[in-house]
Amino acid sequence: MPIFWMLYDQQASVWVIQATKMKRHHIQPEQIGIANPIFILILLPLFEKYIFPYLQHELHLNPTPALRIKCGMAFASAAFFVAAFVDAHAEKLHILWQLPQIFLISIAEILVSVTGLETSYAWAPATLKSTITSAFLLTTAVGDAAAGVFFATLSLSRTKLLFLCALIMLITLFLFSTLLSPSFDNPSVQTDPDLLSTAQRDNPTLISPAGNIELVRDSLKHHHPTTTTNLSSTSSSSAAAL
C-alpha cells in the first residue's frame, strides 16, 4: 500500500508541475485535479452495481479483494506510463491530455484504496478494528514520506522518474501476487456483515473465494437471515466456475 500512495499522491505534486509546462488556455495547473473526484463519483457506483456483478455472473470471474487490488496496481502502473509519455511531449500538448492518466489512477484508487480499506476493517477482529483502520491509513503517510525521499534523491528527469514509478508499481504488483495474494483471499477472521454492500450480501463470493463461502454464510445468517436463502446456489455456481 505505501508504494501505491507514493504514486497516487503525485497528482498533487509532480502532475501539477507537469501541467505548468502544458498548454492550458486559462485552466490553472491545480484545477485539472478536480477530475479525480468526479471520476470517482461516476465510476464507484458503476463498479459496485454493474462491473463487479458482470464479471461474476457473465464472465465467471470472481473479483476477490486480492484480484481487485492486483488490477488496481496494474491501472496505477498504466497511469504512470501514460504520465511519462505526456511529460515527454508536455510543451506540445493541452492540459486536457492529463485526463487519461487521471482516469486510470481513479480506477486504481477504487480497486486498491476502497477495497483495502473495506476489507482491512471488515476482516479485523472486533477489538482491533480501529487499530487496523489506523494502520491502513498510516500507509498513506509512509508512502508520501517515501515519495519525498524518492524524488529528492534521484537526479533524473521528470519523465524518467514517472517511468520509473510505473516500473516500481509493476514490481510491487509481482511481489503482492506471489507473496501476499494467497493469504489475502483467505482471512482467518469472520467478515463483518454490517459493512457489506448489498451486492456483497447477495453474493458473498465478491469478498471471499468459494473456499471461504461457509465462513461468510455463517456470519451472514446471524445478521441478515433474508440474504442466506440464495447462498447455496451462489456457492455452487462459484465453485463450478472455479
Task: Walk me through this protein's architecture.
There is one protein chain. The protein is mainly alpha-helical. It contains 10 helices and no strands. It has helices at 2-8, 14-20, 35-57, 65-88, 99-122, 129-153, 158-184, 198-202, 213-221, 231-241. The protein is globular. It starts with a helix and ends with a helix. Mean pLDDT is 77; it is low at 188-192, 204-220 and 222-242.
List its traits.
242 residues; mainly alpha; 0% strand; disordered C terminus
Provide the low-confidence segments as ranges: 188-192, 204-220, 222-242
Return the string of H and E elements: HHHHHHHHHH
Beta percentage is under 5%
**Shape summary:** globular
Mean pLDDT: 77
Number of strands: 0
| Fraction of residues in helix | 55-70%
Number of helices: 10
Instruction: Using the CA coordinates, give the radius of gyration.
Output: 20 Å
Q: Given the helix and strand composition, which structural class is it?
A: mainly alpha
Task: Specify the biggest β-sheet.
Answer: none
For the termini, the CA-CA separation is 28 Å
How would you summarize the topology of this molecule?
Blueprint: H1 2-8, H2 14-20, H3 35-57, H4 65-88, H5 99-122, H6 129-153, H7 158-184, H8 198-202, H9 213-221, H10 231-241
Helix pairs in contact: 1-6, 3-5, 4-5, 4-7, 5-6
Summary of the model, kept short:
The protein has helices at residues 2-8, 14-20, 35-57, 65-88, 99-122, 129-153, 158-184, 198-202, 213-221, 231-241. By secondary structure, the protein is an all-alpha fold.
